[in-house]
Structure formats: structure tokens, C-alpha cells
Amino acid sequence: MSLSFAEAVFSFFYSASNNAAEAENAACNNSVPAGSLRAPHLLPRLAVHHGVPGAASVLAYDPVQRLLAVGTRDGRIKVFGHDGIEALLCSPAKAACKFLEFVCNSEYMVQVTMFNAIEIWRLNDRQLADSLQWEVNITAFSTVPDTSFLYVGDETGVFSVLELGGGRLNKRPYSVPPYVTMAGLVRQDSSRAPALIGILPQPEAYHSRVLLAYANSILTLWDLHSLRVLATRGGSEMQCTRLSEAGDRLADLLTGRRNVPKPTEEDEEDEQDGEGPEVSCLSWACPFGSVFAVGYSNGEIALWGLPHPPLRTPGPSPSTSCSSLPSLPSLAAAPSGSVQFPISPGGMKALGEEISSQPLVRLQVQGGKGERSPITALRWCADARRAAERGLERGGERVGERGGGRLYVCGGEMPGLPGSVSVVQLGGLEEGMREKAMVKLPWFGPVADVVVAPSTLGSMCASAILVLTFPGQVHLYDEPGMEEHLSARLLSPSPSSHAPAPPEPVSFENPGSAVTTGRLMLAPWGMQASHVLSQLPRVSETRCPSALSHGTKWPVAGGSFGQQPEISPEDGLCLYISGHRNGVTHISDLSTPLIVPLASAPAHLNQGDDQPSYTAVTAVDFCAVSALLVVGHEDGLVELFELSTRRRTLCCQIITERGGYEQATPSECEEGFQMVAQFHQHRAKVRSVALATGVGRLAIGDDNGMVSLVNLDTFTLICYRECHPGAASSPIAATVFAALPVPSSDSSSSSSSSSLSSSLTSTSSFSSSSAAAAAAAPAADAPSARSAGNQRRGSVGAGGGWGRGVDGV
Q1: Is the domain of 504 the same as that of 514?
Q2: Cα(278)–Cα(272) distance, rounded to whole angstroms?
Q3: Which of 428, 474, 483 shows the shortest CA–CA distance to 455?
Q4: Does 471 sit behind a cis peptide bond, omega within 30 degrees of 0 on the bond before it?
Q5: pTM value?
Q6: Closest by alpha carbon to 454, among 446, 464, 445, 444?
Q7: Residue 284 included in any domain
Q8: Same domain? 167 vs 228
Q9: HEC profile for 160-222?
Q10: pLDDT tens string 667-692
Q11: At 491, which helix (H) or strand (E)?
């Protein structure tokens, strides 16, 4: 007996078979052929990842290779280069990222995890080159520019040096405990030493001097080679007095006059009671390393001054200089109560007044009194205009001259206010000008991190500022534009006076392109979709502009595509159809590790009462046989697009809310997706759509539980009804077309209709009467629909082919 196929719509699909034996036989008949299943088929693995992970928490930027790295809270690292170049690194520990930095101008990147593992990643092959487990909690980390050395600080206050050679981490025999840098405040055997919070190599002398910031608010400038403290800043008056006294006693010890007395536990407790606010972050605020900014846990910011480092003179390279660091093996074996450290006599006071608790300036980004959130990040960049005019000559003693530039601040807000980024012009901190010297960046979500993209290698001036907000958003700001805006504000009579507008943020990803729905499918070669998509010109629009508003180059433009795997002719195109919040639908090729955009369907403009707006895409379906795309929107509109390789003039067919039929004004359509029909019968958000172009049908389900069936050959509404009449409405989560075999002879037509109706009642959400109508209507008008479809196909365009497809898609 010959079999024919009748269609049916299944909504919010699938009930199990009542006959277990039939289900078992069906499974046996559909088993995988012997020898065709291989081990790689059963090994799911990540092939493509696109965009910024939602769990992003840390940013890192390499000005030499112009790469951006994003660390996450789940162990992943995403590296971005030129448009379309992305790499995903997955840490085996799956631990949150604590610190992330590039090893400048090399193939390596360093990540410190929350489990205190120091991981070395090799970017060339995206492999983990080495990993070192630290014994205690790491609280500070820094790379040394132009060298392979790394600085590590931990919760015990110890400063250590690591060397990266050939992708392997080696711990150098060089570590500085806190009782050396803070003699008089910390005992050698103390179990309550303050943690080392920040490490900053000093500009102009980054291979020989380093600024150490401790949690007890003490800030120390340490000379790596002479092994002495050059300057101490911060802390309370009591702490500074104790440090000064300890320096005098240390000088006596080194001259052999007497031993350093051991501080008692009571003395240590007194010093902890007299500590200032805890240091949370720090940054240089001067190109020469003579001014630095410190953020505190109470929301305050202080600018501190340091002695100028010596001018650079011809000598050994930074790598050679760091390699000559003295070994200090005696520290670990030093007996309790004695100082076994080669510090120069009078080192604490060799350069004059080197201990100070008074900063140059104190400031707050939020006016008023009361508590404030901690400062979580500080980033500084120099004034490009001043650098060009003065050549960054060393100025006088005023903060504006010694520092200048702009300080980007995260935190410091009043309780209850969302965290944002504030910009402070350091050249305008005089009384009465601070209000004009500060501006806040637009708020896109809780701020996670901020990085500065230098304009050129080694420059303190910036081309852009990159801000990471939750969840996984990166925005760029044109730094020269920010300098122009703040400079004009300082010269204007009042903050409200006319000044150039601040630079607009530029989204690292396409703005407003949040994905709201998606579909993955294969378009084998020989089908209409793969044929048309292979002939269309590649989408010329890039994810990012080539330059920012003031002409500076787009900062993230490094990397290379590398060798991509070839696609076998039988594979076809692996298509990803994504609907977006801004109403646009994109089709991309996922056949390679790079997501290649192929075509886009334009957004629908909703003419609202207030102002026109775009409605989000909520459902999509695509037929590779006929190259038809159906798009459902949040407002209930459904659009039908056809993919074509040529420009045409088309009349869009419109099915109104009551099922009427209209034609829109003819319009010129560019190559690509061309709209051929609109369906307006649904008033709620469209949840699901399904195409069956082999029989010319379209099914639509919405949030109110309504389902409609459309004849695509005649553009008529076959049925529009509630899925569960009389019951509480529930959204239609999915609509699927299926083919059911029934006898095709006339004598058995009555029984076939009966059996079909019964089958639908047990497997679909329709009632038996509505299921019969949905199935019988297409069968009854199929000949005329085919004829009408063939006549209409010429006006729809080349490759319509709706009748050539399979019976169900």
C-alpha cells in the first residue's frame, strides 16, 4: 500500500508513546550504522566562543601587540585582537581570576587565580606553559616592563621576585619581609604582619626601584640593589614616629654600637591601633614616578610625593640589571629578634625627610559627609597636550605640575549608589575648582575594572580608556576627547558653561546587539541557502571602527588569523541564526573557529505613540532548502524573508489581524534578505515559529497560548485558535511540524482522517477537532495551493523553490 504524508502542528510538544514495544522497535530501526560512530563524536568540546564572557571581572592590555585580555570568575580568559580574532583559554583549576597581565612584547600572559596559582599561558598555541602554586594568599602582583621578571606580594607582607624563562617560572632567592621595610612596626617573628597590597615599579627606574603599599597604610619606596628604604609615606603620626626611631636604632646597630631592641607584643598592638585607613589600590600619577595616588577603604584618595629618581644614564639593560639582584638566602634562617639584612647605615634617613604622613592632596569623588565605598581601582594617564608642548620636562613642586593628567577612579560612592567611574583632572585640584575638575562616565552596570591603552609604546599618554562592567560589557572612551572636555571645563566660569561634550562611549561589541534568541543548523551544499550565501558578498561592516573620534587608532587591533581548517564539500555551512534586542537578525557561519557574518535581516521599526522604536526578536526559523527566514517579534509581528542574490522590486504581502490580505507599496530590495510577507494576527509576544516549506506552511505560537497556521503559497490564514480552549492560557514554548503516514487510496480516506485525528489528540496540545482541521485543510487545498504557489513564485524571486523541499522541516 502506497503512503502519503499529511502535516500536523505540534505545540509545546511531545508525549511518550503508549506502546513501549513500538518505541523499542523504532529505536532499533533508527540505530546508528555500524562503524559510523567514532570517539570524537562522543567528546563534546568548545569549538567557537564569541564576545565578552558574562562572568568577566579583570582586564589586561598589551600596548605592543595591541591585545585585550578579559579574566573571568570561572577560570576562563578571553583574548581579543583584530576584528574577528578571538581566543578562549580555560584554566584547569576553573578558579576566578585575581590578577591578569601580559608579559610585555612576548608570547606569554600571566594569570593569578583565587586559589593562588600563578599560571603562565602561551598565546601562540593557547596552552598552559607552566603553573606555580603559592604557599600563602597572593595580595599583590606586577610584571616588570621590558624584562621577564615578576613581582609577588602576599598576605604575610613578603615581597618576592620570580623569573620567567622559556615559559617556566623560577623563584629567585630574593624576598623582602615586612620587618625590614617597616622596622619598628613589625617584629621579625610577628604573625600579624600587614599584607602587601600593591607593587609598582617606579618609572625612570622600574628595574631598580619599587613602591610597596601595605594594608596598614604604610607606603615604602624600596631600592632593589642597595637593599634599603629610600622613602616612607602614609600611616599615622604614631607610626611615622616609631619608624623614625627605628631608623636611628638601626643606624646604631649597623655601626656596631648596640643591638636593635625587640618590640614587645604590647608595642605591636599599640601600632595596630594607631593605623590609618587600609590601602585598597594605588597608581602612579606622574611620568617620572615622583607623584603617586592611593585609594583607601574609606573612599578617600591621597596624592603623595616622592624624591625624583635619578636620570637614566647609559648602562646595562633592564633585564641585565634585574638579573644582578643580590641573593638573600639568610632571610628565612634569620633567628627571631635579630635583623640579618644588609641595609646601608642610616638608610632610613639618608636622603633627608624621607618619612612623612602628610600627603600632597586629599580628595573625594563624592561630596558631602558620611561613609563611602572603597576605592577599587585607580588608573592614570598624562596630558597629551602638555607632553607635546613641554616634552614632559620635570616641573616645580605644585601637584598640577608634578603630576597633572587624569585619574580614573572606581568606587568612592555614597552607600546605596551604583558604582561608577569618575574622572579627575589632577591639574585642577585647587580649592573652588574641584567640582569642575571631576566628571562621571555613563553608567552601564557595576564596574569591574578599568585599563588605560597607551597611545604609543612606553608613553604615559593614552589613546583610550576601557571600562569593564557587569555582565560582560566593555566600553571604550576617547582619552584625547576627555582631556579636551575637562580642560575646557577648568577654563569656563562654571561647570554648566559651554564646553565640548565629553566623548561618547563606544561599545567593544555591537551596541544594542544583545542576543535574545538563536538557532543552529546545517546548510549542506546544493541547497538553496548555501548556494545563495556563498554568492553573496561578505558583510563589510566590522565589529569595531578603525579609529576613535579624535583620530586615534582603535586600540585592540593585534593578533593574526592563523591557519583555519578547510571545509569539506560535503559539510556545507554550519549556520547560526541569532535574533537581537535591537530587532536585527544575523546569519553567521560557524564552520571555522572564527564567526563569519554572512547576511542580516533588517529590524522592524515599531511606530509607537511616543516615538518610533525597534522591537526585540523573540523567535526565528530558517529553511535551508528554500532559503526562507521567518522572524517573530516581541510585539506579535511575524516577518517572512527570502534570501536572494539580486536586487529586485517587491510588494510585501500583509496578512492583517483579522486574516485579511493586503499588498504594500512596491519597494526596492537590496541583495540578501528581502521581506516578502508580514503577519499581524498575533497581539502577544511570539514565542515560537516553524516552517514547512515542502508543503508551504508556517506555524506561529505566542505568549497567550494562541497558535496560527498560514498557507505560504496563497498567503492565507488557515486557522487561528487557542491551543487549550477554556483552560488557563500558557505560552507556546515550541511549534514543530511532523509527518504522519496515512493510507492514500480514496476508499480509505475516511478511516485515515479518523486515525490521524486520533493520533494528534494523543500527541499534541490541540483538541481533536482543531487538530483535524489543521491537518485536513492543507490536504484538501493542496493542488490549488501548489498551482497558486507556482504562479506566485515568479514574483517572489529566483530560488523561491517552496514546493521542492522535503515534506517537513
Answers
A1: no
A2: 11
A3: 483
A4: yes
A5: 0.75
A6: 464
A7: no
A8: no
A9: EEEEEECCEEEEEEEEECHHHHCCCCCCCCCCCCCCEEEEEECCCCCCCEEEEEECCCEEEEE
A10: 788 888 999 999 988 989 999 999 99
A11: helix 479-491
